[in-house]
From TrEMBL:
Coiled coil segments of this chain: none
Domain Amine oxidase: 106-207
Pfam short name (any one): CMAS
Family matches, as InterPro entries: Amino_oxidase, Arsenite_MeTrfase-like, FAD/NAD-bd_sf, SAM-dependent_MTases_sf
GO molecular-function terms, A-Z: methyltransferase activity; oxidoreductase activity
Protein name from the UniProt record: Amine oxidase domain-containing protein
Length: 1003
């Protein structure tokens, strides 16, 4: 039923399934369950009534007796199922009060039948229902869910879905008869219409079905359908509170009132069942009252099947008449008489008509947790209740228990339903926190109603709630493996972290770590990667673009950014399966050397190069980056998705090796996944799913960690940086789709279901991170200048990159270097003067006024700024909502530090200080926009100071004066020209800064 509602998109909400009994108008026994012991002891005399406490004891005994009875019948099918409820009660010696004040009232309320007939019901029928619906205990009942906005919401959804599939729905058309002949089924309606169909499904009460079949009903149809008897009840909607228990403390959702003459009625309190707003008079529905209630609003008649022994036997023979004449039968009478039974019967009938096999679970398995698992369930549900502030998580246990956790914050509208199959789920989450959740999914302890996006949405809900917790948190203590989200997971957190420390990427361990992932099987990776076998972020032009085209676009973008030519010899650190090697040599004719630690990748790449006939230009080496020969020098070094395997401790060594292997005029281009600066220390001191299950020894560096390691040990300088992480979300979704479509082939390679669920978790886990922007993917290079790239010009058909020719009309006094190398400082100065950036008392820039989470989001114009420096178009991109609208034509370009420091005159020094501080301001803004809280910048997150920041802090006092002098054109020449030469230039020559149309300039 819940999966059906999930499919339709029907919203549900928590309801109440409490129960009360009031005998002899409150003079006899009276008790309830809505408010715990206060309802149970609403009749104070029961506190000293030994018969009452005997009944309570018998209720506990009843549960054990029922479970034993059902297990015996299940294990011994030959045992007679015709025992009545009265025979069961007599054989187990239950007291009279137990029968009159507990068992009979519950049964009479559920099936709306006379009290005298209850003990003649089928024992197996009744006790199975009690067991499946958790009616064997007074307290600890599962949450009851009801449809939000009542049943018409559900009916409308079903109607829309059927009409969307071409179904014609006719309402208000009474069917008089259903007959069959050689042509099919003939339906005669009350309005005189006569229609013939190939088949017919009759979903109606059994007596009504026989009436429609009339004289054409077969002997078996009459015998089987005639065994289902019904009771008819008068039902009233009213406001009469006298049909509730005498003691208000006993009032519950369902209230049974017994009379002196051994009759009874049931009253439903709609205000608590359907979450109606409080009203002066309660809304009540009473079935079979002894007299008409006061303040009656509506009266109608209902019918309900009787759970007799004959009905139980008939339900076992229904297969004898299904589809025999092209007619199938369904209805609530084929189960316990409720809506979910009607849906189940309808599914069976429809599958029968379509000649499809349908397996129905008639007796659901209940979770039977141990004491430890029961305690873990209590701990986990309490944690979810306090942690979930936005979004909705529903836990559906096997057997029907439901836990709903819904936040009041509307930031996240996601809703996900988890199907809990084993109580170990709670124990693993309680003792291992997030890794326990992953382990439970891998071992099949739970699954999702939404097979496509259930896991993805769950992780996104956790991320959103984590961000909310952090945004309102005041704790400044450091976090790591010693502070898991559940304190009961401390020991396992320490164990996993120690294991991660032991996987540090020494020369020996690095090869083991790489082999555990990349040497699984080349055939395995080919089942979810595209034809190019590229295992990194693609760049998509549109949402439905083919993965291969997007991967080729990414490769050509990197070739263009690296400015590779035929004369170059390039080194690829982490060459993968050779896709980049083949494409770069085909496009440029350069010489290529690639290194890897994966033996499987090496074999595949070498074979691929031989098939392409490029073995004279391409060389692959099985070695570590630390084993690169010092004798070889390379014009370009490329590393795509490899620096994540270096590790925090070896980052400086990596850049030392790169600088040693790179020529003086060479270029290093990196593409790497990164974690936010503000959460980097917490991340690397914590364990996690990726470190434990996917990439042992892996560590996602932060942007500051990469740049600081580069600056500390090398002369390399970052001149270009672009974040393409949103494209990784779509890349991972493509991989997941391919992976799940090829499950059978993956199993054929020797991988089991646990392995498949591990990788499914991996794809969704990472996709959620990129979707929520808590991790990113950067492309970085150290060129002095880079040609603007327009991804829309990288055609999907031939994938040959095109260069945009831009005419330049330099102002007087500007040099060739100025035209080709637009300096960042001019861009920053114009940005500051045009945007009117404000500083608070701590001289921190208010980035787009977004410190307040409730403030309006910046517009596209605020986030994307166009400038012209010597008529050279430049665009800074901070963020844009739709990744497919993202314009990739501009890059941030930095001037050479040596040029900035060439001259020591006062004007140049003042100008240099202004540039330094302006760059720092821009860098801080980017850091805030890429912090782990998403787009909302936070002053609580502290970032390590860069060398520029350290120097800039010493010179804050001259900022105002320097800005003023620049705006008065006292300093007029770009820093890309030597400062000594600048000082000799005429002060009358003006450097023109104008805003231009980027598209017009490109044309």
């Amino acid at each position: 039923m819940m999966e059906f509602f999930e499919f339709l998109g029907v919203d549900t909400e928590t309801s109440d399934m409490s129960f009360s009994v009031s005998l002899d108008q409150g003079c006899g026994c009276e008790w309830g369950t809505r408010d715990g012991f206060s309802s149970l002891l609403s009749q104070k005399k029961n506190l000293l009534n030994p018969y009452f406490w005997q009944m309570i004891t018998e209720i506990s005994k009843f549960k054990q007796d029922v479970i034993s009875y059902l297990e015996e019948l299940q294990n011994n099918p030959d045992i007679d199922h015709n025992e009545t409820l009265g025979q069961f009660i007599e054989s187990h010696g239950y007291s009279e009060l137990f029968q009159k004040a507990y068992l009979i009232p519950i049964c009479a309320s559920i099936w709306s039948c006379p009290l005298a007939g209850v003990l003649g019901f089928s024992a197996y029928y009744i006790l199975s229902f009690f067991h499946e619906h958790h009616l064997l205990q007074l307290f600890g009942l599962p949450q009851l869910l009801t449809i939000r906005r009542q049943s018409h919401a559900h009916v409308n959804k079903v109607k829309q879905e059927l009409e969307k599939r071409g179904c014609q729905i006719r309402t208000g058309c009474e069917v008089n008869s259903v007959s069959t002949n050689e042509e099919g089924c003939t339906i005669v309606c009350n309005d005189g219409t006569n229609e013939v169909y190939d088949g017919c499904i009759i979903t109606a009460h059994a007596p009504d079905t026989l009436k429609m079949l009339g004289k054409e009903a077969t002997y078996d149809e009459t015998r089987i359908l005639g065994a289902f008897q019904y009771v008819h009840s008068d039902t009233f909607l009213h406001h009469d509170k006298t049909f509730l228990p005498r003691n208000r403390a006993a009032w519950s959702a369902c209230n049974f009132l017994g009379t002196i003459n051994n009759k009874g009625c049931t009253t439903y309190w709609l205000n608590v069942i359907q979450n109606l707003s409080e009203s002066k008079l309660p809304y009540l529905v009473t079935v079979d009252p002894p007299h008409t209630p006061e303040h009656t609003l509506v009266k109608w008649t209902t019918s309900h099947p009787v759970p007799s022994v004959a009905a139980l036997n008939a339900s076992c023979e229904l297969h004898q008449i299904q589809g025999k004449r092209g007619i199938w039968f369904s209805g609530a009478y084929q189960g316990y008489g409720f809506h979910e039974n009607e849906i189940k019967a309808g599914v069976v009938a429809a599958d029968g008509m379509l000649r499809r096999n349908c397996s129905i679970l008639y007796s659901s398995k209940h979770l039977v947790p141990t004491w430890a698992e029961t305690g873990a369930r209590l701990l986990v549900t309490r944690f979810f209740k306090s942690y979930i502030q936005t979004g909705c998580i529903i836990l559906l246990e096997e057997g029907g228990t439901v836990f709903t956790f819904q936040g009041t914050n509307r930031k996240c509208s996601l809703k996900v339903s988890l199907l809990v199959h084993h109580a170990q789920f709670y124990w693993k989450v309680a003792t291992q926190a997030d890794l326990g959740l992953a382990d439970a999914f891998i071992h099949g302890d739970f699954s999702f109603a939404d097979k496509n996006k259930g896991l993805l949405n769950l992780i996104m809900i956790f991320i959103d709630n984590g961000n909310l917790k952090e945004s309102v948190g005041t704790s400044s203590k450091k976090r790591g493996w010693w502070t898991p989200v559940l304190y009961t997971a401390a020991l396992s957190s320490a164990k996993y972290f120690i294991r991660h420390v032991l996987n540090q990427n020494t020369l020996t361990q690095a090869r083991r770590n790489i082999s555990r992932h990349y040497d699984l099987s080349n055939e395995f990776f080919s089942l979810f990667l595209d034809e190019t076998m590229t295992y990194s972020c693609a760049i998509f032009k549109s949402e439905d673009e083919d993965l291969k085209d997007a991967q080729l676009r990414k490769i050509y973008v990197l070739i263009r950014k690296a400015k590779i030519s035929k004369e170059h010899h390039i080194l690829d650190i982490g060459c993968g399966w050779g896709s980049f090697a083949v494409e770069v040599v085909k496009q440029t004719g350069c010489k290529y050397t690639g290194i890897t630690l994966s033996e499987q990748q090496l074999k595949y790449a070498q074979l691929r190069v031989e098939q392409a006939g490029l073995q004279d230009q391409i060389t692959f080496i099985l070695c570590d980056y630390r084993q690169i020969s010092n004798k070889d020098k390379y014009d370009r070094i490329i590393s795509i998705g490899m620096i994540e395997h270096v590790g925090h401790e070896y980052m400086e060594e990596f850049f030392t090796c790169c600088e040693s292997a790179l020529k003086d005029d060479g270029l290093l281009v990196l593409q790497f996944i990164s974690t936010p600066d503000g959460s980097y220390d917490e991340y690397r001191h914590s364990n996690g799913f990726i470190k434990e299950y996917i990439f042992p020894g892996g560590c996602l560096p932060s942007l500051s960690r990469v740049t600081s390691a580069m600056a500390a040990v090398s002369k390399l300088c970052v001149v270009h940086l672009e974040e393409i992480g949103i494209h990784y979300y779509q890349t991972l979704r493509c991989w997941r789709k391919n992976f799940l479509e090829n499950q059978s082939q993956i199993r054929a390679l020797g991988f089991d279901d646990k392995f498949i669920r591990t990788w499914e978790y991996y794809f969704d886990y990472c996709a959620a991170g990129f979707k929520m922007r808590i991790i990113g993917d950067y492309q970085m290079s150290d060129m002095f200048c880079i040609v603007a790239t327009d991804y829309s010009t990288v055609a999907a058909d031939n994938m040959v990159p095109k260069r945009i020719e831009t005419e330049s009309s330099p102002s007087k006094g500007t040099s060739e270097a100025t035209r080709l190398h637009p300096p960042l400082y001019e861009l920053v100065l114009q940005d500051l003067s045009q945007s009117g950036a404000e500083y608070n008392e701590y001289r921190e820039e208010e980035c787009f006024k977004r410190d307040d989470a409730n403030s309006n989001s910046p517009s596209t114009e605020e986030l994307v700024k166009d400038f012209s420096i010597d008529r050279y178009p430049v665009r800074i991109h901070l963020f844009k909502e739709n990744q497919y609208e993202y314009d990739h034509t501009g890059y941030t370009v930095f001037a050479s530090p040596s040029e900035c420091l060439a001259c020591k005159c006062q004007d140049c020094r003042a100008k240099h200080d202004v540039v330094i501080n302006a760059i720092n301001t821009l860098t801080a803004s980017v850091k805030e926009l890429t912090s782990k809280r998403g787009l909302i910048p936070s002053k609580r997150i502290l970032f390590p100071s860069t060398p520029l920041e350290i120097r800039a802090k010493r010179r804050r006092k001259v900022i105002s004066k320097a800005l003023s002098s620049i705006q008065k054109s006292e300093i007029i020449t770009p820093l890309s020209v030597c400062c000594t030469e600048q000082c000799t230039m005429s002060k009358g020559e003006q450097h023109e800064l104008k805003k231009v149309d980027v598209e017009a300039t490109a044309e």
